[in-house]
């Protein structure tokens, strides 16, 4: 993890379990997390998210993303309307451009789908896709990254291989800290070299 507004904490090594950390902080104030953070090496929990396609709300599942046969990076945060989250989205989008169509990146937030679409246009995000956890908080609960009091997502990054196994998990101790981009990208690079994908970002939505 890298510190964006305060000093950089010592990074934790995966896996991260619910028992190890039931709370994160926002500007030093503790907030409880709901759900169980999945363990690295185990099958990634199923989930569903939502997006807008041709002015219609559509549901997207983990199986939909994995159907591309590509390693999957999930960049998770509360809202595009916060500076650190916009930075996280842009950094991962820029880093994933170098992979071409060998991986799939998803920016997951608690925003409404049309807010996500607006952010993608404004920030010129082209190498990732956006998805919303707004409607039922299904993803946040499934991955143990939902703040109980505010019902928004904590800052996190997950990498899932093409077989659906979780290979990297990071949940930021402090909401205002950026994630460890290099650690996630290193895992993604190792997975991308295992085989060539058959589809790109455009086929997901």
How is this structure best described in words?
The protein is of the alpha+beta class and 205 residues long. The chain is built from 5 helices and 10 strands, in the order ββββαβαβαβαβββα. It has a 5-stranded mixed sheet with strand order 7-6-5-9-10. It has a 3-stranded antiparallel sheet with strand order 1-2-8. The chain has a two-stranded antiparallel sheet with strand order 3-4. A hairpin with a 2-residue loop joins β3 and β4 (56-61).
Provide the gyration radius in Å: 15 Å
What percent strand?
15-25%
Side-by-side strand order of the widest sheet: 7-6-5-9-10
Q: Which of globular, elongated, flat, extended, rod-shaped describes the shape?
A: globular
Q: Provide the residue-averaged pLDDT.
A: 87
Low-pLDDT residue intervals, each spanning 5 or more residues: 1-21, 197-203
The biggest beta sheet reads: 5 strands, mixed
Class computed from helices, strands and strand pairing:
alpha+beta
């Amino acid at each position: 993890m890298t510190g964006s507004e305060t000093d950089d904490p010592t990074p934790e090594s995966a896996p991260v379990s619910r028992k190890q950390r039931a709370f994160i902080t926002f500007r030093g104030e503790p907030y409880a997390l709901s759900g169980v953070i999945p363990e690295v090496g185990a099958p990634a929990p199923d989930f569903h998210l939502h997006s807008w396609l041709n002015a219609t709300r559509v549901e997207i599942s983990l199986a939909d993303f994995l159907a591309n046969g590509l390693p999957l990076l999930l960049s998770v945060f509360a809202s595009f309307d916060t500076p650190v989250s916009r930075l996280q989205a842009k950094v991962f989008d820029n880093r994933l451009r170098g992979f071409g169509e060998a991986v799939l990146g998803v920016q997951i937030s608690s925003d409404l789908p049309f807010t996500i679409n607006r952010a993608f246009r404004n920030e010129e995000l082209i190498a990732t896709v956006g998805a919303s956890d707004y409607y039922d908080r299904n993803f946040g609960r499934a991955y143990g990254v939902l703040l109980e009091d505010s019902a928004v997502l904590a800052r996190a990054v997950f990498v899932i291989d093409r077989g659906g196994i979780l290979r990297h998990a990071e949940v930021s101790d402090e909401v205002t800290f950026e994630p460890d981009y290099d650690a996630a990208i290193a895992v993604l690079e190792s997975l991308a070299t295992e085989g060539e994908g058959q589809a790109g970002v455009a086929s997901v939505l």
